[in-house]
């Protein structure tokens, strides 16, 4: 039988590599940073491989360390799952859920209580991430993204959204598309590394209207959530995704500023790596999240303009 390295040492290495810090690993494991360092050195000696380069008081993973980390993380996660299963009533499923930042800031965080109420308590790590996300390094179980970014993992299209011109009821507005050119406009730009968000120029073209220079003027935000908040504050008219603005329309915080909508170029997609797909908690969260997305996009408030 092959002699196994120290389990405590492997746990120390995994925690330090995952958190990027010996100090963070020490806090997680309730030992000192010096103990973490010594345990890792013991593993290195037992394996005959360096796992960290120690440069200027910093520890940087070697190629061997990079190769070991995702496999060890999965192994310790499985050990934890077995321990929780044996614990019976003490079991709480753990989920790592990754969504775009705008969805994490408000939309999904406000709804997760509904999942817990219907499926029971769970340890959920909600992450607001831009694409691409490191599935294995961060042990992500389920990723909702705009567009099919992850062909190397099972990915499904779940819903296609559109953008709608919305404004606060307190903002004086016009009901015709050409009238919007006289209102302050709020622009959304996801930045050079993000997908292309429909511009006001795109919207006016679809509406058959010529806005002139007004299509370039006004406030600008680099996230959908920020643009929506600016519109709710009465600072202008925003092009907002239905999935984000439906609830605000239903509650009367926003009204449709014009009837014309514009379909987004890509669908929202769910990606679940194979290591997570067989877990009951992941399957339950997938079904629940798809339902929440479809309900938002299918809201009656998006069908009938309130102009």
What would a concise description of this structure say?
It contains twelve helices and 13 strands. It is an alpha/beta fold.
Describe it.
The protein starts with 6 loop residues before the first helix and ends with a helix. The protein has helices at residues 7-19, 22-29, 33-47, 63-86, 101-107, 112-119, 200-206, 224-232, 242-250, 274-277, 280-297, 300-303, and strands at 52-55, 58-61, 94-99, 123-128, 142-146, 155-159, 162-167, 185-188, 219-221, 237-241, 255-256, 262-263, 268-271. With 307 residues, it is α/β, with parallel strands linked by helices. Mean pLDDT is 86; it is low at 174-178. The strands form 3 sheets. Strands 7, 8, 9, 10, 11 and 12 form a 6-stranded mixed sheet that branches.
Shape call: elongated
Q: How far is the N terminus from the C terminus?
A: 75 Å
Classify the secondary structure makeup into a structural class.
alpha/beta
Helix/strand order: HHHEEHEHHEEEEEHEHEHEEEHHH
Can you summarize the main beta sheet? 6 strands, mixed
Number of helices: 12
Total strand segments: 13
- Give the low-confidence spans: 174-178
Rounded mean pLDDT is 86
Q: Percent range for helical residues?
A: 40-55%
Radius of gyration (CA) equals 24 Å
Strand fraction: 15-25%
């Amino acid at each position: 039988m092959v002699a196994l390295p120290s389990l405590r040492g492997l746990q120390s290495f995994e925690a330090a590599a995952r958190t990027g810090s010996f100090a963070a690993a020490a806090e997680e494991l309730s030992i000192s940073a010096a103990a973490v360092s010594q345990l890792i050195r013991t593993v290195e000696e037992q394996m005959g491989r360096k796992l960290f380069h120690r440069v200027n008081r910093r520890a940087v993973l070697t190629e061997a360390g990079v190769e070991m980390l995702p496999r060890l993380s999965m192994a310790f996660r499985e050990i934890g799952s077995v321990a929780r299963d044996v614990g019976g009533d003490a079991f709480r499923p753990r989920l790592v859920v990754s969504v775009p930042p705008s969805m994490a800031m408000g939309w999904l965080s406000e709804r997760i209580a509904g999942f817990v109420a219907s499926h029971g308590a769970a340890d959920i790590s909600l992450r607001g991430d831009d694409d691409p996300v490191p599935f294995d390094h961060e042990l992500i179980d389920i990723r909702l993204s705009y567009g099919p970014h992850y062909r190397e993992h099972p990915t499904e299209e779940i819903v296609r959204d559109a953008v709608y011109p919305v404004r606060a009821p307190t903002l004086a507005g016009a009901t015709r598309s050409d009238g919007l050119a006289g209102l302050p406009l709020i622009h959304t730009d996801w930045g050079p590394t993000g997908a292309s968000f429909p511009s006001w120029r795109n919207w006016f073209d679809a509406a058959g209207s010529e806005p002139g220079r007004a299509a370039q003027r006004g406030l600008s935000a680099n996230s959908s959530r920020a643009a929506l908040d600016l519109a709710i504050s009465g600072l202008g008219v925003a092009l907002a995704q239905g999935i984000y603005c439906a609830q605000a329309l239903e509650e009367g915080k926003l009204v449709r500023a014009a009837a014309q909508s514009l379909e987004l170029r890509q669908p929202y997609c769910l990606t679940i790596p194979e290591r997570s797909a067989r877990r009951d908690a992941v399957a339950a969260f997938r079904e629940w999240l798809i339902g929440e997305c479809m309900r938002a996009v299918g809201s009656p408030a998006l069908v009938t303009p309130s102009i």
